Amino acid sequence: MKTKPATVSCPVCGKPVTWTAASTWRPFCSERCRLIDLGEWLNEERRIPGEEVPDTGIDAAGDY
Ligand SMILES: [Zn+2]
Fold this sequence. Notes:
The structure is a single chain. The chain is of the alpha+beta class. It has a domain at 7-46: Erythroid Transcription Factor GATA-1, Chain A. The protein has one helix at 31-46; strands spanning 7-9, 16-18. Strands 1-2 form a two-stranded antiparallel sheet. Strand 1 (7-9) and strand 2 form a beta hairpin. The longest helix has 16 residues, at 31-46. The termini are far apart. Residues 10, 12-13, 15, 28-30, 33 line the site of zinc ion.
């Protein structure tokens, strides 16, 4: 009984990626998607902690 190669979805574009040694950029479909994801991750890390985020609706200040 052969084991079917697992397929995952590229976290960036959602394309199916076959999880084999041949898929160099797994879980991404390509180097491009890998770099895009890395860039987004770096942006998250660089976010200024005191920055206002208007769309969260979290009232952390409790200034009522
Ligand atoms: Zn992709």
